[in-house]
Fold:
Amino acid sequence: MHDTLHSTPLKTGDKTIDAEHDLQMQLLSSLSQSLANGGDFSPTRYVLEQFIEFSDMHFLSEQLVMRLHAYPGYEAHLEEHTRLMKKVRDIRESIVCGEKTPSLQLIQELRDWLINHIATKDVAFGEFLRKKEGLTS
Ligand SMILES: [Fe+2]
Ligand SMILES: [Fe+2]
Structure:
């Protein structure tokens, strides 16, 4: 696995989407930081909840813009969002059940996954949006 801890995701060119991606990355950094600090687990859980809430909102708003523009890649994109949120909810589930605390490795995997999603699927959607705007302006 390559080290993506300090890399920033590629830009989609859409200011709102890019700002939301920055926040997603910051929340994942806080999560790693909180885990690395050890000790009381409640701060980690709090950040995880924030990440879930914010990512739900971000994914829904991306999907809304896609539907608004009749984006042909919508279904495949939606599937990736759903898969990520399932993974994150599984992590939360295991915490709630007291099974284990998530490993730093797991958070790193989430981060890699998200960066990959942004660099491919989200950037492709950004290009689609720009092309469309170019046609109408
Ligand atoms: Fe995104
Ligand atoms: Fe996306």
Remarks:
- The chain is about 75% helix and 0% strand.
- Residues 62, 77, 81, 117, 121-122 surround fe (ii) ion (ligand 2) (CB under 6 Å).
- Residues 67 and 117 are 19 Å apart (CA to CA).
- Residues 1-6 have pLDDT under 50 and may be disordered.
